[in-house]
Structure formats: C-alpha cells, structure tokens
Amino acid sequence: MTRVAEILPAGSWNEADAADIFAADYEGRHRRRMMLTLRSGAKVLLELEHARLLHDGDGLRLEDGRIIRVEAMAEDLMEVTAHDPLHLLRLAWHLGNRHLPAAIGGQHILVRHDHVIADMVRGLGGHVHNVRAAFDPESGAYAGRGAGHAHGDEHHHHSHD
Asked: What's the Cα-to-Cα distance from 135 to each of 27, 77, 95, 101, 144, rounded to whole Å?
C-alpha cells in the first residue's frame, strides 16, 4: 500500500507536477488516518499523528515521490454578509465565539449550513444566503501547519454568551 510521506502546503509546490487528485468536502479532508481514493481510482494511505485539515491546493507527497493535489469539493454552505465592515466584524466575533469553522472573505463569511446559526445571524441583523462552494476554512490561531491545539494541564474556561 502506497502511503503519504509528507504534506506540502498549498503554494509551496508546482501544481503542474501533480500525478493525481484527491477531491473531498470539508469532512472528507479533515482526517488523521484514512484510505484516500484518488480521482484515477488508485488508493493511498494517509496516516498522521494528529487529525488535520487538508487544504485546497495542498500536495500529498507519496513514498514513491509522486505528488497528489488536494481539491476541496463544492458543498452546501451559508454565506454571511453584513451592512458594513464593522457589522461583518461583529458577526465574525459571534461565529468565532461558537468555534465554527469559517472561511473569511473581504465581504462575507462562509460557514457550514446550520439553521440555528442562520437564525442567530439574522437576529443580529446579518444576511444569510445559501451557496454551493468549496469550503476551506481558517485553521485557527493554534493550529499551525501540522500542529495541534492543546491546553496542557491548565483549565481553559470562557463564556459563549
């Protein structure tokens, strides 16, 4: 079984060198260990120490040197928009306070579909539009490339109100 030997961050390798493609939605790209089925039908084993999100454009260098391009597939999302930049910033704070994966654009925020979150956004004066797009959310301040978010032995408390 061919294994993934290294993850190459998007932009750090020449995509023209891709030998094949692994395409998946957000859930299918957030893994620790999984048999990946490539567009060609071939299978390769991903086995990481910790779960992580494979981003659109990442390269998976295989043991034999070939590189597989990661492609984020389109999925049903909510596009959150606001009246002005300050309002969008406030909406982003509320979404982040709920620890939701979010892809942040200049004029909008993409989040996975959730009717409770849609109601919250509307209640805060924001707008929600259903869209179909690739979802490649922010990794988070503690994620790093390949690093995990750990709290150690300390206790971490904060309010979600």
From this structure: 10, 8, 16, 9, 18
**51-84: buried (b, 16+ CB within 10 Å) or exposed (e) per residue?**
ebbbbbbbbbbbeeebbbbbbbeebebbbbbbee
3-state class percentages of the chain: helix first, strand second, coil last, to nearest 5: 20, 40, 40
This prediction's pTM: 0.78
Residue 2: partners with Cβ closer than 8 Å, 6 or more residues away: 42, 43, 44, 45, 62, 63, 64
Q: Are 124 and 77 in contact (CB under 8 A)?
A: no
Question: How many of the other CB atoms lie within 10 Å of CB of 105?
Answer: 12
Q: For the beta carbon of residue 100, count every other beta carbon within 10 angstroms.
A: 14
Q: What is the predicted pLDDT for the residue at 138?
A: 86
> In one letter, which amino acid is 75?
E
What residues of the chain score a pLDDT lower than 50? 145-161
